[in-house]
Amino acid sequence: MKLVARYCELVKFEHTLFALPFALISLLVATAGRPPARMLLWVLAAMVAARSAAMAFNRLADREYDRRNPRTASRHLPAGRVSTRGAALFTLGAAALFVFAASRLNALCFALSPIALGVVLLYSYAKRFTELSHLWLGLALAIAPVGAWLAATGALAAFPLWTAAGVALWVTGFDIIYGCQDVDFDRREGLRSLAARLGVRRALRLARAAHALAVVALALAFAGGPRLGPAALAGVAVAAALLVLEHRLVRGGDLTRLDAAFFAVNSWIGVVLLAAVALDLWLI
What we know:
It is a single chain. The chain is mainly α and about 280 residues long. The chain has one domain: UbiA prenyltransferase (Tetracycline Repressor, domain 2), CATH 1.10.357. The protein is about 75% helix and about 0% strand. The chain is built from 14 helices and no strands. It has helices spanning about 1-10, 20-30, 35-60, 65-70, 75-80, 85-105, 105-120, 135-155, 160-180, 185-190, 195-200, 200-225, 230-250, 260-280.
């Protein structure tokens, strides 16, 4: 059990809450709130596997940077609590599970699974060559609602695309905020982020703009979503309020409450939206 717990800590299993609710939202809307149990199972497996593979690969790719950064030196790989070989095998296993889960959904999901896997894994190298690494992470998580919709319907539609846009902009914004704490380290190591390029205050302004656009995209998605109504739009309003709170916590470039802004606030946004969509589909 200790070994399982160690690997769950390695990939921050609890952070699956960032993308998973949006996959479930898309799946529920696509199936009028009644996804077949088999489909739900394989979507959950694909989501957990893809996210676990991406996080473990990120830890592998960044292990030398993590070793030199005082903030991250205690992570599992630099601290020696998980071996490089163990993390690599875990990554391969999670990636294989993702592809297998996609194959159990439909042929289209299976065909697209290597592309999706490439996007989520190669993000780990984005900071080496572009300040837009935040957007890359956003696009990686935005795969969740599109993939779930394709699993259910086999075709694209406006709802998953607008939802994906909202997710991409939301993640871009909060990753910009998260990157502000490493601005000095990134500059010293030659890593690229908007905070390292523009400074913390300007980066935070861009994060606010990204989050404002995210709310617009989610409102458009939920306003036009099949069988969605007032509860879903109320959920978007609550999510917008949470984002306002997030930016108040780091107002003026004060990063002393960044953990509360990043983890506590963002982990609730997807949950709130999922609950609102479920309310519309099941009760109203």
